[in-house]
Amino acid sequence: MFLRELRHPVSNLKGVGPATALAFKSVGVATIADLLLYFPRDYEDRSLPRPLSLVSRDAESAVVNTTVVVERQAWVGRRSGRTLKVIVREIDGGRASLVCFGRNYLGKTLLPGERFSLFGSFTWRYGELTSSNFEVELSSERAPSANNIVPIYPLTEGLSQAGVRKAVARALAEYGDHLADELPREIMTRRLLLGKAAGLRGLHVPDSAEGVERARFTLAYEELFYLQLIVGRRTLRRRALVRPRRAFSTLLQEKLVTRLPFALTADQRTALDEINRDLASDRPMARLLQGEVGSGKTLVSLLSALAAAESGLQVALMAPTELLARQHAETAAGLLAPLGVRLAFLSGNVKDASRSRLLEALRAGEIDLVVGTHALFARGVAFRRLGLVIVDEQHRFGVAQRLALVEKGETPDLLLMTATPIPRTLALTVFGDLDVSTIRTLPAGRKPVATHLAREGNEQKVYDWVRSEIGRGRQAYFVYPIIRSSESLNVKDAESTFLHLRDTVFAGFRVALCHSELGEEEKADVMRRFAERQIDVLVATSVVEVGVDAPNATVMVVEHAERFGLAALHQLRGRVGRGSERSYAFLVYGEPLSEEGKRRLKAVKETNDGFKLSEEDLRLRGPGELAGRRQSGYIKLSVANLVTDLPIVKLAREDAFDLLKKDPGLLADEHACVREVLDRAPPFADDAFEGG
User: How far apart are CA 244 and CA 223, in angstroms?
Assistant: First the structure.
């Protein structure tokens, strides 16, 4: 339904002049196609009259739907900022005042004696019935709307409901009603779908509430079907890849597991079994390993690397920051090096002779596991036999970056890791061509982190709590949204607050600072000293969100928590509670607090379940951030909703995969139908999906 062929500017429509076209452009409507996809945000049932005369004086507000005549106009306020006031009456005597805040232009049409339809929310104030939230329609302006189910569109300055409805009605008549159906007839019949033209008209000019739902189902299904067709092509093309079976052994895996001072959780064992089956397969692995913060994903990935290395393959583990990459390298050195695995670390800061020797050893196959940052997919990095690529915090990398590393091997296995659990709808769409392993359970002995909210100004209680924890030999984090003070932002910063905490609040304790502008060596040194308990309080930015493992830290304080996303707050909270001691997170918020901010903080306080929080995050922010793409155009679905439309996703996926299996020709890029689908598809088509 991505109407790319309708590229005519919206100004081609009669009645859409330059000023209106500019207003449409400000809401993303530049073409006829954009206008047809500019769907109502709500609908109002105006089938029943609600006269002014029946509005009770005791009611806080009441909806009115009636016909009135203008009695007179008046003006209120000072001359420089006057507001039009229009007094109207019904035939049977009901009277009201319409206060036209920001709409003084209505004075040119609401002239004395003029008759029109009135709809709005009214209340009694100062002895008269009044409204500033109303809509009027002269008989000459009324757009078609069967059964008085009236669409309500998002507006901006220069657009009115009546104007948008008239423009949409013209676009439907001249273009929308003539669109051909593209879905296979068999699918349309089986799923009881309307045609494309009927679906568009059903959303813009509905005849009933049931009609709206059927039209929405039709168009949402079509969007999701095209998306799943792309997912299905990637999935089936990957499954068609065949490589020689590799010699595969898990002896070193089993040896490491027996050496661990703890037992793997059931979820870790299940995930490892799934990965081992993939590694032993004659088809390359493409798997997403997701799990709670601190659930042991890194250990599972290193066990996977151990099996690959034992089988004579090289492994590359890529992390988004040098801090996290160093943490992985140190963990790998402690666990794998004693078993004979040859390790190396590579980042942009490894230079000159040492870098040359490392790259030569990598090319010669003298390194089994290399851990690094973006430097791993640089042009000069080559492998003798790259067999497994592991990408941690995968959403922080672009797809092209991941593929650049994968292409350094011959059909290597790909394991992506994320501590941001993926909602079910995203798992079937953005990550729909990957197998998914999930680790929900935490290691034995871990206790849920107790989360508390504190209003800015009440920090003293938080400071007292932190001081008592430090007195018990524990450690604490203080996290701030910015590094240094900003004139444009009235928020605390890490640098200046560090001085206050060090010199005043926690005088006598060891306080250190860490943020992204410090050199990599300095950051690594600070984190090493914190992990070794040489620092009591670590003041930082979100640089500590990932890659910091300090089991002795029991308190996380996030100041201006309202400025952090749900996933970031959950990740930061996950920096504590990694030992056996009870841990605490204090989310200090500033005011005023937006409704979305309230929902975010309430959600984090009420649950430690990252999977529940990921669903809430999807509702609040949409799929772009969770999928690892931050630009606003990512997965710009016009009708489908990835929060509520999981049932439709499943139907569309079933039908798309079934069609691809029946017609293998659709897997070829040169197939005409596929070219059309890719041309219509929104920005997510080619670079949202993993694996390649």
Answer: 38
